[in-house]
Predict the structure.
Amino acid sequence: MKKTGKLLCLVIALAMLAPAAMAEGSYWTGEEDGITLTYWVGLSANAASQLNSYAESPVYKTVMEASGLNLEFIHPATGEESTAFNLMLVSGELPDIIEYNWSSYEGGPQKAIDDGVILPLNDLLETYAPDAYAMMTRTDSLYRQCTTDDGTFYAFIPIADSTSIPNGYTIDNVQTGPIVRADWLEELGLEVPQTIDDWTNVLTAFKEQKGAQAPLTFNGIGANFLPFSGAFDASTDYYLDEGVVKYGPMEEEYRAFLQQMKDWYDAGLLDPDFASNDSATQTSNLLNGVSGAFTGYYIGGVATINQNGQALDPAFRYVGAPYPISQEGQTPRIGPYAFEARTSGQAAITTACEHPEIAARFLNYYYTQEGGLLKNFGVEGEGYYRDEEGNVYNSELLTNNPDGLTLKQAQAVYSRGDSPSPGPVIKVFDISEEANEALALWCTIADEVSETVYPAAATYTSDEAAEISMLTPNINAYREEMFVKFIMGTADLETEWDGYVEYLKTLGVERALEIRQAAVDRYNER
């Protein structure tokens, strides 16, 4: 089902009606009193470090008090969400609401509907969730991102949207990038690196003059390397080239990228434990002077590492660096990209729900201005405050937490702003000067990257999903194995590259490309 002019008119009408639902105290009708909704949702890592349940969160305490709803949360063990999700499906014991990445359901969200797990939401959205409906259909692109191939809405999806507040911003499509130790650069008389040659010089100076044993550190492989692979126009996975799906790790550009990483590894500039580090080890390296550069998020990377480091040394400072280029004048077009419709945090109403209309109204609340601010920033006067112009600012409870919580941890305790959840994903430029500047810098390549990133909302048919699920594990495992071997030199890039590419083909990468191309073509036709 394609979006028609009639649908657009309905969206405009709903948007005009939405402010009535946003007025203070006007949302809850009383029909929710005494209704219990069971809500399956993973606790984010930051939340799990501080909370036993979202029932303890001011966000949901406020909603329960205002609405009369009883919310019973079911949390899988942190890190075991996928396993717990599959076990829940096998058991047949479904809660009322499941918050999950429904694109990862085998066969996609349409298959979840066909399997009788979740409800199609078209009628519920139009009748009971007009704010969510208006937001998810605001543009043709959002409509495609929020529906299945036949135009069915399947979940209440987090949408990057900060237009409800004057100082909100939406340029957060590229949230990660290279991060470098700025106080070291200043001490050594160096500029923030731009080119790969600049990076070689900076990392060498960090090693030789600052004693860094692992100047550039990572915690794992794959997408973490995208900022550097992009300098060679190489993707670490599937990507689009003028609408054609390609597999980066079998192309010559990727080979050139691997050679650069091997050169850095051989010179002692790349962390020798890059493939096995966890986040705790990486953080320790960065705080203790073992490393001076990494890739990370503007909040969890730049802001958090500076907050921790400056508690020990006020001069300690990391800043975002531009996406590297291999030669002057190049514009990177390969990198991580967050679509407006986020894939994580999608809340679907299950077929076991006895009150789907109440569940829809409950989830719709977070798409109103009042509910959106609550879930992104917490309770007004506690987690955030507004000035006379309506600008929103995080309170010191989050930015300078008296209990020593990082910003992300405080967001997880006092709001749900640490990770996507149903409703708008609202951000404001008040995190820190370094974090704000990093985000603005990285987002300068967003338009180019948006043309090459594989659309996360493209889904497979049931047959395609079954085939992809058979092909993908072996392809990924071999790619990751050879990534490490090529960089560490246990496999030779000169003599073993052709055999590596041919073996990827025997594992079915060409068939995987055909399936993904079909999924993208259907996505573009939504």
